[in-house]
Write a structure and sequence with these properties.
Oligomer: single chain
Strand content: 35-45%
Radius of gyration: 19 Å
Order of helices and strands: HEEEEEEEE
Helix content: 10-25%
Strand order of the largest sheet: 1-3-6-5
Number of domains: 1
Number of strands: 8
Number of helices: 1
Bound molecules: copper (II) ion
Shape: elongated
Distance between the termini: 67 Å
CATH class: Mainly Beta
Largest sheet: 4 strands, antiparallel
CATH architecture: Sandwich
Length: 122
């Protein structure tokens, strides 16, 4: 093998390892209210399903309104019966756009975070 070929083989191996590791991170699978959705009533809570089980001590979700004011009840927790579900209850919300911000640690100790919005219509 030439140096060039060996270098290429190494890069391919690293890329493969990186993708195998990434697959173990907890990513958002789906949520209620759904990502980018419009709902007609103030939901009682937000519920997020992840692709991996979460570490309860280090996993949080919060919800803010368009002004950045927090509107969840600060009771974010991993579901007792399903460790891949993160939930928080909400104050009664007026029509508007709300942003859900999450930061989780999966059981493989990797941190992932993200956010999405949903809308409450009149
Ligand atoms: Cu991971």
């Amino acid at each position: 093998m030439s140096i060039r070929r060996i270098a290429f083989a190494c890069i391919a191996a690293v890329a493969w390892l990186a993708s195998a590791t990434a697959a173990a991170h907890a990513f958002l699978d789906h949520a209620v209210p759904a990502v980018g959705s419009s709902v007609h009533r103030s939901p009682q809570d937000v519920r997020l399903w992840f692709t991996e089980k979460l570490e309860p001590t280090f996993s949080r979700v919060r919800v803010v309104d368009a002004q950045g004011k927090r509107v969840d009840r600060d009771d974010s927790h991993v579901d007792a019966t399903d460790a891949s579900v993160l939930t928080a209850s909400l104050q009664r919300l007026a029509p508007g756009t709300y942003r859900v911000q999450w930061r989780v640690v999966s059981v493989d100790t990797h941190v992932t975070e993200g956010d999405y919005t949903f809308e409450i219509k009149d």
